[in-house]
């Protein structure tokens, strides 16, 4: 019996090219007890017409229309306000589910006592080549604790596409501190506050294409630094509330990840500087400098500190000097 209702949220912004395939995968689900909440985030293409046409043919589809584009996090949070299912999951408007995806996710979560989240199998579809590659989580376990899932998610040793109990989703909303990477912090908190996380056989097909902002030379790529800092503040709050059982270990791990992201951000800037205006270059360097100031160098692993280009200099000029020397050497060596 399909007694548990599942809410599927689809945030939509100018998605006319792929929206039909996304919606077709939802209305054909073998699990029928679903509601499909489509949030039109101020689209100015034919997305709204497509949504309304599908809603006329399937009463499980509800369309919410926002007056202006406000970003993925806000659109999803608006959907969460009206979601009525016991479980909630997200589907991007250019992605799609296998027909049995929701059924498999519900089976997995309800077959394991105290499970709160169920991970889909993530299938990465490369649009330019038609190649399909499965994302390999770095755990062979079929069931892990929420805190274990949280730790694995800090460097994405497990992905962040899942179905979750509604009460956790609604308590920990999507972080709107940045337009890009807005879902990553919420995902990690969802894992942290789950008792158990199980793996399901339901497939999520993730479309990877060059039109994506994360694949283009956009200044928004550097939002990851602000998003990382935002999560750090959230983790400090979790520590104060006693939600972290091994806070020191978690902060050590995350600070090293934040530091690697600072170095990675400068590496990206170093290689793509010519694509940014002078004003954008100043803004990018300011973002990197601000992130550097927040790094707790005491938590950086010794192995990193003694690696060329990875010593956490607090002085920004020394940081730039060190990174420029390191990256020029890498280019000379063809690495």
From TrEMBL:
InterPro entries assigned: Glyco_trans_2-like, Nucleotide-diphossugar_trans
CDD domains (UniProt xref): Glyco_tranf_GTA_type (cd00761)
Entries under PANTHER family matching the protein: GLYCOSYLTRANSFERASE, UDP-GLCNAC:BETAGAL BETA-1,3-N-ACETYLGLUCOSAMINYLTRANSFERASE-LIKE PROTEIN 1
A GO molecular-function descriptor: hexosyltransferase activity
Native species: Barnesiella viscericola DSM 18177
Residues annotated as domain Glycosyltransferase 2-like: 7-137
Keywords assigned: Transferase
Protein name as catalogued: Glycosyl transferase family 2
């Amino acid at each position: 019996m399909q007694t548990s209702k599942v809410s599927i949220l689809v945030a939509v912004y100018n998605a006319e090219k792929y929206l039909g395939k996304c919606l077709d995968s939802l209305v054909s689900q073998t699990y029928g007890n679903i509601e499909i909440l489509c949030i039109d985030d101020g689209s100015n293409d034919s997305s709204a017409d497509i949504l309304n046409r599908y809603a006329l043919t399937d009463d499980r589809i509800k369309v919410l229309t926002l007056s202006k584009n406000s970003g993925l996090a806000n659109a999803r949070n608006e959907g969460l306000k009206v979601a009525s299912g016991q479980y909630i999951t997200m589907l991007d408007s250019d992605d799609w589910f296998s027909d049995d995806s929701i059924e498999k996710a519900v089976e997995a979560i309800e077959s394991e006592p105290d499970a709160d989240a169920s991970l889909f199998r993530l299938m990465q579809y490369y649009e330019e080549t038609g190649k399909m590659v499965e994302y390999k989580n770095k755990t062979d376990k079929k069931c892990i604790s929420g805190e274990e899932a949280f730790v694995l998610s800090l460097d994405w040793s497990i992905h962040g596409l899942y179905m979750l109990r509604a009460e956790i989703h609604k308590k920990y909303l999507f972080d709107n501190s940045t337009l890009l990477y807005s879902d990553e912090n919420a995902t990690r908190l969802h894992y942290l506050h789950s008792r158990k996380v199980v793996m399901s056989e339901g497939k999520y097909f993730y479309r990877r294409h060059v039109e994506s902002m994360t694949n283009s030379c956009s200044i928004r790529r550097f939002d990851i630094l602000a998003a990382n800092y935002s999560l750090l503040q959230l983790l400090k709050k979790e520590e104060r509330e006693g939600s972290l059982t091994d806070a020191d270990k978690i902060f050590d791990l995350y600070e090293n990840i934040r530091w690697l992201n600072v170095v990675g951000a400068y590496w990206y800037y170093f290689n793509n500087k010519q694509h940014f205006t002078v004003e954008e270059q100043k803004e990018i360097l300011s973002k990197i400098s601000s992130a550097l100031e927040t790094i707790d160098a005491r938590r950086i692993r010794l192995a990193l500190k003694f690696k060329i280009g990875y010593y956490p200099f607090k002085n920004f000029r020394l940081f730039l000097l060190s990174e420029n020397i390191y990256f020029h050497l890498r280019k000379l060596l063809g690495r």
